[in-house]
Amino acid sequence: MAGASFRIPTVLTADELMDKSFKRASKISKKGSDALDGKKKTALAKVTASGDIVTSTLNGYIEKFPRIDKGEDFLPELVDLVIGIDRYKKALGALNWASNRIDKLKNDSLRDIRGTKDPRTIDGVRNSFYGRMSSYIKRIDDDLLFLQEAKNKFRKLPAVDPNVPTVVVAGFPNVGKSSLVAELSTAEPQIAPYPFTTKGIIIGHVKDDWRTFQVIDTPGLLDRSFEDRNAIEKQAVLALRYLTDVMVFLLDPSEACGYDMGKQNALLEAVRKNFSGVPIIVAESKSDLLKRSGENISFSVETGDGMEDLKGKILALVRTVFRKKAVASEEE
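The structure corresponding to this sequence follows.
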C-alpha cells in the first residue's frame, strides 16, 4: 500500500465549488432567432454548464477516493484508525446524494425553461436553480472539508504493500534495527511517514531469486510496552499485526542501547503476546561488543559476524510464507 498510489484530487470547499460553477456560467451567452430565443438558449446553457461542473466534480471525487470497507486487514484497520471508515463512507455518500439532487434539479429546471415563453419565468427558474444548487452544496461543506483532510492523511500512509511478504524488525531504540534493515535491503531503504511515529518507518526491499519481500522498522510503534500506549497507539500496533508475516526481534545484550536486559526481555514477551501466531526470530545484535552463547542468533552489522546465519533464517521463513500464499491463491 503506497500512499503515493492514491491519486486523489484536491477537494474544493463549498464556496470554491460554487465559484467555479458560477464563473463558468457567467461567461456563457447564446444567440437566438430573436431576443426571447437567445435568452432561453443562454439560460439553458448556463444551467447545464453550472450543474454539470458541480456534478462532474463531485462524481470525480467519489470515483477517485479508494473504496475501503471495514475488515481484519492492515489497510482497512489503518484507514479506520487514521481517518475513520464510517465517517469516510458517510462523506462520500453525502457527495453522491448532492450530485443526484443537483442533477435532478438541473433537468427539472431545463424542462421548465424550455416550456415557457415568459422572460421573467426564465430568469426565475435560472435563479431558483442557482439558489437551490447552492443550498445543496453548502449542506455538504463539512463532508468536502473532511475528504480534503482524508486526502492529506492518505498521502501520509506508509508506502507498504500488504500483498508482499513482510518482515517487521522490532526492539528498543538503538538496538540496531535500522542498520539491519539497511544491511538486508538490496537498495537504500526508503523513509516513509507513519501516523503514530516521531520518525518515518524504514522500508527496505529484499530480492531472493525471483521473490521480493519487504523489511520494515517501525520506530515508535514496537519499541515500548503495549500497556504504556494510548488507545490509538494500541490500535496501530494491532493493525501492524495484520501486515507482519515474520518478525525479527532484536536484543542488545551489551545494553549499549540504554535499556537493560530485563526491560528488553519484558518487551519481547509483550510483543509475543500481541503478535501470537507470527513466527518471531530473536536475534542478539552488536556481537562485536558482547557475544553470548545460547539459542539466539548473535550478529554484528559492523563486522558481518552472524549475518549469513540471520539472513538464512529469515529467508527460510519468508519462503514458507511465499509457499503458503501461493497455495492459498490457487485454492481461491
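Residues 35-64 form the longest helix (30 residues).
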